[in-house]
From TrEMBL, chain A:
Leader sequence segment: none
Family in the record: Belongs to the glycosyltransferase 2 family.
Protein name as it appears in the record: Glycosyltransferase 2-like domain-containing protein
Organism this protein belongs to: Algoriphagus chordae
GO MF annotations, alphabetized: glycosyltransferase activity
UniProt cross-references to InterPro entries, sorted A to Z: Glyco_trans_2-like, Nucleotide-diphossugar_trans
Segments traversing the membrane: 6-37, 366-384, 390-413
Keywords, comma-separated and alphabetical: Glycosyltransferase, Membrane, Transferase, Transmembrane, Transmembrane helix
Residue ranges occupied by any Glycosyltransferase 2-like domain in the UniProt entry: 64-205
Automatic annotation (TrEMBL), chain B:
Origin species: Algoriphagus chordae
Protein name per Swiss-Prot or TrEMBL: HEAT repeat protein
Secretion signal, residue range per the UniProt entry: 1-24
Keyword field: Membrane, Signal, Transmembrane, Transmembrane helix
Domain of life of the organism encoding this protein: Bacteria
Length: 487, 516
């Protein structure tokens, strides 16, 4: 009886792994096709767009740029100056000093001649207490608002910024990101173009600035990073932004807008209760909650995506830092999916419930666990002498080649659409990385993912028990008391 | 339907495969009576078939081994009994066939057994042991060699074949992608160099023609003269033409007066206008839009007939560009055609049209008021925006009269227009909206009240403030009250010690926050 059960389980697992492998292949091929169609349309549309008009048009929406800063003393002044020089008519820059322990605030006060004001702060979204709101005496910095508040994390800082923001759209960014001068005009376009659906949010591409030349807030010369880890992230970002998100945009199933560069409809963000400060995946969580809100009210909507290179950041090239980042990402994903599990395979939530959620659950959240299980399954087969080396190697080779195919496709996108890496040597380095990545970097990424899962289970990283129960409605977040989250 | 048919076909194929051992009804199972007899001997017992011995008179011969009832079940045994009967008493006997105990002829019995075989109701006895022995001995004599050897052995097993095919396919695709990427990169770099080189080739002659030739000279240029500047063989190359069109369009944007006319003449002389019209007739939306952009940039009014056809196109981009081109180029067109559009107008389209209308309204009567009567709300809203952006104060009376009968969104835009132009409106327009249950309308009215309200509005604001509205509305109302009547505002602040109102008051009096 025992033997029968054991072999039955083995058989079932075999079928599951075969099905998963097949699904991975089919899904990636579909993603390639969908993203190609979307990219083609985007490029065609872009040919006829005149972005100069938006800068001065009275019809263009106003934008509040929210830049949370924590211990950014070294670069804050330069970064804020860069933000203030963006080419757009109606915008304000709100820097939120999230209880920095360094001289971030004093540097800002000095550089921009700031004075504390009697701003009537209205806490539409609850956040940590505000110590003061500063404006400049100098008319040149009229667009700048600096908020000094108690430390509460990035999401909390953003919520404070949302409370102060006065424009129609919110641009939530990382203060250390480099934004292209025309970043606002390009990101605003999807909000202005749609007629039948409400555009609730628009995501942008994050470019990798490591080893690149930056002048006046714009990357002038692209070079691939010097380390393999850095180059791996170039490939990965191309795959995620130019392929993955483009494909999801085609299906209107985009669930994640990068926290480093995303535009949102302010009214709706306030309506759903702003960012959820108890999660490290606050960017994804907000998008999912906004989508839920729209689905629950049956309001036609769209989450847009602009694949143009408009924002750059430096990525970690040290393994420990990257490991921490990946650990945080996986925990954020688990958290968001747990919170919104009511949408899982729920037809009431449309594409998000039926397609995006299951995809994220299986191929993003569970991917490291499934890969580990696959490895264990292979070991068991070897031990019981039921292992077919031929099929194992065949499957391995197919998945390896799929990885090469997908990665090279995404780099090809970059070459077709933007051709930023003009030097042939850079392309060769990227090809080399594509070939090495599945063997040298991917196992580490899986390990970091597993570590993230483990940390989530043991409650490392500030997770409470309460938040694992999931919200019944998108606005339930408002009703959760901060104290209960830690119980 | 196709799926259904395929399924049926597959099912029939399966059926064919499964029934390959079942013989057809009319197929001969036994070639002759001898083979039938041999079969009976080999088979032994056959269900439903018995035998008995009869003499020449038809009487049943009964023996211990051949009972009268039931008969003999084994054919070989029956033959043996027949022999023994013959030996014992020299009695002439015949073997009679019984099918289900009914006497049957030899042919009928043969047919019966054939049927059993056809239907697979009996299993044919094969001398297994003998055969196996034979096969083994044969195999031992032959030296073993697989049927399919070398690379063919992988094709022999369909599973292995499928796996290897998949790997090969992925291998080819993956490395083809890398190869294509490298190739694409090289081609793109080459194209960029080519474009730069063509650009250099074009700029010189283009400047020469523009600056050294008059319009008449340009129009009367012979082909030979033209080909000296723009070689005929180059004009056949798509990239060259693309660069040429791009360069002419870019120059046309920057130039004015005579130069514009010269560029247009050159555009026609090089037959680029025909290319633009060809694009307008295309089925691809991006080519159509490219054609319209060229027509628009070159002020090529002759092509408006084709442009007009696209004004109501279901494609957003075609429609937008067609309207923009028509507004820009047509001398006798007003906004009536826009009023009748059924597609909603996006902000992006509004922005583009606004730019053109702003430029045109001083020289042409566009009948802006027509837009207010559109059944399409987005067109009406655009009309109100136009009034304020181009400052058509003369149309405000019309808006005021329409105000009570319009929808909430219309009301909001009309109030914004009055506020923007700073023209006092009827008290009903602002006071009525201030008390609206629609929070958006009330907020807009509250903001506009400071600019276009009167003393009755100030009194109404105080009344609303006493009803404790939300923080945002409170702040807007107080700001308006401050603008309308400072004395009343100060008095209200002194009388109300609510922390919210005090905070708002401090905010409003802070000089750094005047624009926040």
């Amino acid at each position: 009886m025992y033997s029968f059960l054991f072999y039955l389980i083995l058989e079932v697992f075999g079928i599951i792994f075969l099905f998963l492998s097949f699904s991975v292949i089919v899904i990636y091929l579909l993603i390639m096709i969908l993203s190609a169609l979307e990219m083609r349309d985007h490029r065609r549309k872009n040919r006829f767009a005149d972005y100069q008009d938006i800068i001065t048009s009275p019809i263009a929406p106003g934008v509040s740029i929210l830049a949370p800063a924590f211990n950014e003393g070294e670069s804050i002044v330069q970064n804020v100056k860069s933000l203030l020089s963006l080419h757009y008519g109606k915008f304000e820059v709100i820097v939120i000093n999230d209880g920095s322990k360094d001289d971030t605030l004093s540097k800002l006060i000095k550089a921009f001649d700031l004075k504390i004001t009697d701003f009537a702060y209205n806490e539409e979204i609850s956040a940590q207490p505000v110590r003061g709101i500063y404006k400049s005496n100098n008319r040149s910095f009229n667009r700048l608002v600096v908020i000094d508040k108690e430390n509460g994390g990035k999401a909390d800082a953003l919520n404070t910024g949302i409370n102060v923001a006065s424009k129609e759209l919110l641009a939530c960014i990382d203060v250390d990101c480099i934004l292209s001068h025309e970043s606002i005009t390009r990101m605003v376009r999807p909000f202005m173009e749609e007629t039948n659906r409400k555009v609730i949010a628009v995501g942008g591409v994050i470019g990798i600035a490591n080893n690149c030349d930056v002048q006046d807030g714009t990357v002038t010369k692209y070079r691939v990073p010097t380390t393999l880890l850095g180059r791996f992230q170039v490939v990965e970002y191309c795959r995620a932004f130019l392929m993955g998100r483009m494909a999801w945009t085609r299906l209107n199933g985009l669930m994640l807008i990068s926290g480093a560069f995303g535009f949102f409809n302010r009214e709706l963000v306030v309506e759903v209760g702003g960012y959820f400060p108890k999660t490290v995946g606050e960017d994804m969580e907000l998008v999912v909650r906004m989508r839920r809100y729209m689905e629950e009210r049956k309001i036609p909507y769209k989450v847009g995506f602009v694949p143009d290179p408009l924002c750059w950041t430096e990525v970690p090239e040290q393994e420990e830092v990257l490991a921490r980042q990946r650990n945080r990402w996986i925990r954020g994903t688990i958290e968001t999916l747990q919170l919104h599990r009511v949408t899982r395979l729920n037809p009431n939530y449309g594409v998000m419930g039926l397609v995006s959620y299951p995809y994220w659950n299986i191929f993003e959240k569970m991917a490291p666990v499934l890969e580990l299980l696959g490895l264990l399954y292979t070991l068991v087969l070897i031990i019981i002498n039921d292992f077919s080396a031929f099929y194992f190697v065949a499957l391995f080779v197919v998945l390896y080649l799929l990885s090469i195919l997908v990665s090279s496709f995404s780099i090809l996108y970059e070459q077709i659409a933007y051709n930023n890496y003009k030097d042939k040597k850079d392309l060769n380095k990227l090809i080399f990385t594509i070939i090495l990545e599945p063997l040298m970097i991917h196992p580490k990424v899986v390990f970091w993912g597993l570590k993230g899962h483990w940390d989530f289970i043991v409650g490392k990283g500030g997770w409470g028990n309460m938040i694992r129960t999931g919200f019944k409605k998108s606005e339930d977040k408002k009703n959760i008391e901060p104290n209960s989250l830690n119980s | 339907m196709i799926v259904k048919r395929t399924a049926t076909l597959v099912f029939l194929l399966c059926l064919l495969i499964k029934t390959e051992v079942v013989l057809a009804q009319n197929e001969q199972v036994f070639a002759d009576s001898i083979s039938f007899v041999d079969f009976l001997k080999a088979q032994g017992e056959i269900p439903g078939l018995n035998y008995r011995l009869i003499d020449s008179s038809g009487k049943i011969i009964s023996t211990a081994l051949a009972p009268e009832v039931g008969g003999i079940v084994d054919y070989s045994q029956a033959l043996a009994i027949q022999d023994s009967v013959l030996n014992r008493g020299s009695v002439e006997s015949t073997l009679e066939f019984l099918v289900y105990n009914e006497s049957s002829s030899f042919e009928a019995s043969q047919e019966y057994v054939s049927n059993l075989l056809r239907n697979g109701d009996i299993v044919v006895n094969t001398p297994d042991s003998v055969n196996r022995k034979d096969l083994i001995s044969l195999a031992n004599k032959e030296r073993y060699s697989p049927l399919l050897s070398g690379p063919y052995s992988y094709i022999g097993d369909y599973k292995i074949f499928a796996v290897i095919s998949t790997i090969t396919l992925f291998f080819v695709f993956a490395f083809a992608m890398i190869f294509f990427m490298v190739l694409y990169k090289a081609r793109r770099n080459r194209k960029e160099k080519l474009v730069a080189s063509y650009d250099e080739q074009i700029v010189g002659p283009l400047s020469e023609i523009l600056f050294e030739k008059s319009l008449e000279e340009l129009e009367s240029l012979s082909n030979e003269e033209l080909y000296l500047s723009f070689p005929e063989n180059q004009l056949k190359k798509p990239i060259y033409m693309q660069v040429l069109v791009g360069r002419i369009l870019a120059l046309n944007k920057k130039m004015k007066g005579d130069f514009k006319l010269k560029l247009k003449a050159l555009y026609k002389r090089l037959d680029l206008d025909k290319l633009s019209i060809e694009k307008l007739k295309s089925t691809k939306w991006d080519r159509i839009v490219t054609g319209m952009v060229e027509v628009n940039e070159m002020d090529y009014t002759e092509a408006l007939v084709w442009v007009k056809k696209h004004v109501n196109s279901p494609n957003f981009h075609i429609r937008s560009q067609a309207v923009a081109t028509l507004l820009n180029l047509s001398e006798n067109i007003d906004l009536t055609f826009l009023r009748d559009q059924s597609f909603p107008l996006s902000r992006w389209q509004q922005m583009n049209y606004l730019r053109i209308i702003k430029h045109l309204h001083s020289t042409r009567n566009l009948h802006l008021g027509n837009l207010f009567d559109s059944e399409n709300q987005s067109i009406r809203l655009f009309g109100y925006k136009l009034v304020r952006v181009i400052g058509r104060v003369d149309l405000l009376a019309d808006l005021e009269s329409k105000f009570p009968f319009t929808e909430i969104e219309d009301k909001i835009e009309i109030i914004k227009t009055f506020e923007y132009l700073g023209v006092p409106a009827l008290s009903e327009l602002i006071n009525g909206s201030l008390t609206s249950e629609n929070i958006k309308l009330a907020s807009i009215a509250a903001r506009a009240a400071g600019v276009i309200g009167d003393q009755s509005t100030a009194q109404l604001i105080i009344k609303i403030l006493n009803d404790a509205p939300g923080f945002k509305l409170k702040m807007t109302l107080m700001k308006s009250l401050q603008s309308l009547n400072v004395q009343l505002y100060n008095q209200f602040i002194e009388e109300n010690l609510s922390p919210d109102l005090q905070r708002i008051s401090q905010h409003l009096s802070d000089p750094l926050l005047q624009d926040v």
